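Priority: medium. Attachment 1 of 2:
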């Protein structure tokens, strides 16, 4: 969800103004995904690198996220959405916010309409390191470790591999997001800044994904026939 700061600066406003405006985009996209039959949706809200931003901006984001979580908890629960938070391990996270995360996960834990994962204080590299540490603690013989074994030690191992990554604002980089899970993801880079991103843009991205051929390194059956002499 990229472009909040630039959106605000283009309006001669502080960056925090863009973060506040992003709330509407978040709710619109969640509802659009649920209505479209998407079963798993992940939102990258705050990275391990975002701690390096100015202190006043980080503090504002913590307060904003807490307000949004508390405001929309019943909305998410009523729509059968199960909420998870990926990361949330840094001691700088305010205890009250961490409790709100726990409360929302408890409230929605039995829902099965859609799983919403909010990546907060998340880093893909850190997840991989933690999975490696977990494997070592489990004393699993090295020659028995497979990709599936490794994936089983990642946070929320029931999460399927990512099919589609949407990065708004035209930026084209991974930014340490779910590095293991995005290995064969399709990517879309809409130029619209996140505060302006709405259901219509989301549906355009889904349509673009549906037009692509998913080969996973192989060849489609139709191409096999076409390649014969």
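Attachment 2 of 2:
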């Amino acid at each position: 969800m990229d472009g909040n700061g630039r959106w605000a600066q283009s309006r001669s406003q502080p960056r925090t103004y863009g973060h506040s405006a992003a709330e509407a985009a978040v709710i619109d996209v969640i509802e659009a995904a649920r209505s479209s039959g998407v079963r798993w949706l992940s939102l990258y809200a705050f990275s391990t690198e975002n701690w390096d931003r100015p202190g006043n901006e980080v503090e504002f984001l913590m307060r904003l996220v807490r307000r949004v979580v508390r405001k929309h908890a019943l909305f998410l629960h009523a729509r059968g959405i199960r909420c998870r938070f990926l990361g949330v391990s840094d001691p700088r996270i305010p205890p009250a916010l961490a409790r709100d995360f726990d409360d929302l996960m408890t409230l929605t834990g039995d829902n099965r309409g859609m799983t919403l994962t909010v990546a907060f204080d998340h880093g893909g590299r850190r997840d991989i390191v933690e999975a490696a540490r977990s494997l070592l603690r489990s004393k699993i013989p090295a020659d028995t470790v497979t990709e599936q074994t490794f994936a089983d030690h990642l946070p929320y191992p029931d999460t399927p591999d990512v099919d589609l990554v949407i990065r708004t604002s035209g930026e084209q980089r991974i930014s340490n997001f779910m590095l293991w899970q995005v290995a064969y993801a399709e990517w879309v880079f809409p130029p619209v800044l996140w505060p302006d991103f709405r259901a219509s843009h989301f549906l355009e991205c889904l349509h673009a994904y549906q037009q692509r051929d998913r080969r996973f390194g192989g060849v489609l059956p139709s191409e096999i026939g076409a390649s014969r002499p």
